[in-house]
TrEMBL record, chain A:
This is YciI family protein. Belongs to the YciI family. Gene3D superfamilies: Dimeric alpha+beta barrel. InterPro entries: Dimeric_a/b-barrel, YCII. Residues 4-107 form the YCII-related domain. PANTHER family: BLL7171 PROTEIN, BLL7171 PROTEIN-RELATED.
UniProtKB/TrEMBL annotation, chain B:
Keywords: Sigma factor, Transcription, Transcription regulation. Residues 108-158 form the RNA polymerase sigma factor 70 region 4 type domain. InterPro entries: DUF6596, RNA_pol_sigma70_r4_t2, RNA_pol_sigma_r2, RNA_pol_sigma_r3/r4-like, WH-like_DNA-bd_sf. Pfam families: DUF6596, Sigma70_r4_2. The keyword Nucleotide-binding does not apply. The lineage of its organism: Bacteria, Bacillati, Actinomycetota, Actinomycetes, Kitasatosporales. This is Sigma factor-like helix-turn-helix DNA-binding protein. Residues 171-261 form the DUF6596 domain. Belongs to the sigma-70 factor family. ECF subfamily. Transmembrane segments: none annotated.
Length: 135, 391
């Protein structure tokens, strides 16, 4: 089994094919989209491949250490940041092919006009613990 | 075994152990062990005791005390605190003069002690007063069980020096219970129902109008639960809820408790909040809501708390009572960075007929939303207005 992170971006991914902002969809299209996402997660729970799914608020900031006894420095939020993560789903699957298949399915979630969004998702394998048998 | 009955006995059993001289942390662990044991062996009143005494189990509470006390002694023995254990054995049968009602109350105070952070107080209350397992609490708050176990044991260390017989502050207890209720919609344990159970138990242990006010507030909000979400999980705003699905029994109970509390003329913020909820519950349709009275209660609430969030909700009520322009004027006096400010502005703009501005504000409010259900709801509102404008 191998774990993969499917990352969804607010900004930074190549433009989706059906690239219409959600507040320009009809309420029915929004409901259909939500249902698809919930069903997708429920199906992965049933197959035993679901690990976690979380959504992030768009607002955030950068923080760094600023030396002994000083409060951390904060910067941002940056409206012009190139890359902005919207959320993720973690899956635990048998193969890389399966991970690609599932990311493709998630990207097919319906959007404006009830048509698939064809959204670009970033697929990243987790680094694993070292195996017990090495020779 | 009736788990609810078992868990309702948790605080008084724990209180007895502490009165007998057990330290709180060890006693709490022992009571948890006894609860698990009770679920396993299912002792019933009148049935042969399984606690190894060979005597019939006269009552479940007595059974739990016996088992928990033995667990505590075993653990103490294992801890090599020999002298302490022998001292304790000498005084074992003395449960002390305090009643179990006092014990229960003291436990609430201890678990909500001001030295604890809110998340620690919540976790400790759910375990030591509510009798939930660490695993159940961890699942409810979506954190790993090991994390929750650490949080609880650190909380117990924090309060280990607190005297058990000192009166505590009811206000801190109410804040903890309110937190449990308000964030109680995830996991397999129904935390909202648990918060109501714990507040009911507290109301039985102490006569205090704000405890009654909080219980009424919880009941009145809980009564609307079935109507608050659509089958697809989306939020249904108060005005659009099917009022036929409100729980009339819970509403009647909440209103009765509130009226008795208000009659004592010691108003507090929970009573005022409950009064607003009761006025909503009292309206057969959204259009029949007594918004004028609701504005008056928000004025009381603002006076009691000084909270800007209350003033924001008041602006909505003013918009209903005196029209959207009046609501927008009330809103203009507030800080635009308040949570939900943009959503309220969007709502009032729509009511005022400015759909383009309302749609833009709803989309902006969706980006600022702090939870998914609210974000989806606001996005839908923007979509609804945009669809209407373009058609």
């Amino acid at each position: 089994m191998a774990k993969y992170l499917m990352l969804k971006h607010y900004r930074g991914a190549p433009a989706a094919v059906n690239n219409v902002p959600m507040d320009r969809w009809t309420p029915q299209e929004i409901s259909a989209h939500m249902r698809y996402m919930n069903d997708f997660a429920a199906r992965l729970e049933e197959t035993g491949e679901f690990v976690d799914s979380q959504a992030l608020a768009p607002e955030g900031m950068f923080v760094r250490y600023d030396g002994e006894g000083r409060p951390p420095v904060t910067d941002g939020p940056f409206a012009e940041t190139k890359d902005l993560i919207a959320g993720w789903m973690v899956i635990d699957v048998d193969s890389h092919d399966r991970a690609v298949e599932l990311a493709g399915e998630l990207s097919a979630a319906p959007g404006a006009g009830g048509k698939p969004i064809h959204e670009w998702l970033e697929l990243r394998p987790f680094l694993t613990a070292p195996p017990t048998v090495t020779e | 075994m009736d788990e609810a009955l078992l868990r309702s006995l948790t605080p008084s059993v724990l209180g007895i152990l502490v009165r007998r001289g057990a330290d709180f942390a060890a006693a709490e662990d022992a009571v948890q062990d006894a609860l698990v044991e009770a679920v396993r062996v299912r002792p019933a009143a009148g049935s042969p005791g399984s606690a190894g005494t060979g005597e019939p189990v006269r009552d479940l509470k007595g059974w739990l005390v016996t088992v928990a006390w033995r667990r505590f002694l075993d653990a103490t023995r294992a801890d090599t605190a020999r002298r302490r254990r022998e001292d304790l054995l000498d005084e074992e049968p003395a449960p002390g003069p305090a009643s179990s009602v006092d014990d229960t109350l003291q436990l609430y105070f201890l678990c909500a002690h001001p030295s604890l952070t809110p998340s620690s107080a919540v976790a400790l209350t759910l375990r030591a007063v509510g009798g939930l397992t660490t695993r159940q609490i961890a699942r409810a708050y979506l954190v790993p069980e090991a994390t929750m176990a650490q949080r609880i044991s650190r909380a117990k260390r924090t309060v280990c020096g607190v005297r058990f017989d000192r009166p505590g502050d009811v206000a801190t207890v109410l804040r903890v219970l309110y937190l449990v209720f308000n964030e109680g919609y995830s996991g397999d344990v129904d935390l909202a129902a648990e918060a109501i159970r714990l507040t009911r138990q507290l109301a039985a242990a102490i006569d205090h109008p704000e405890v009654a006010g909080l219980l009424a507030l919880m009941l009145l909000h809980h009564a609307r639960r079935a109507a608050r979400t659509a089958p697809d999980g989306s939020l249904v705003p108060l005005a659009e809820q099917d009022r036929g699905r409100w729980d009339t029994g819970a509403i009647a109970e909440g209103v009765g408790i509130l009226q008795a509390a208000l009659a004592r003329d010691r108003l507090g913020e929970f009573q005022a909040q409950a009064a607003i909820a009761a006025l909503h519950a009292d309206a057969p349709t959204a259009g029949e809501t007594d918004w004028v009275q609701i504005v008056e209660w928000y004025d009381e609430l603002a006076r009691l708390t000084g909270s800007p969030v209350v003033r924001l909700n008041r602006a909505v009520a003013v918009g209903e009572a005196d029209g959207p322009r009046a609501g927008l004027a009330a809103l203009a006096a507030l800080d635009g960075s308040l949570p939900r400010y943009t959503a309220v502005a969007a709502y009032l703009r729509e009511r005022d007929g400015d759909l383009a501005t309302a749609a833009r504000l709803y989309a902006e409010a969706a980006r600022e939303a702090s939870n998914l259900a609210e974000r989806d709801h606001l996005t839908r509102q923007a979509a609804r207005l945009n669809a209407r404008r373009s058609s």
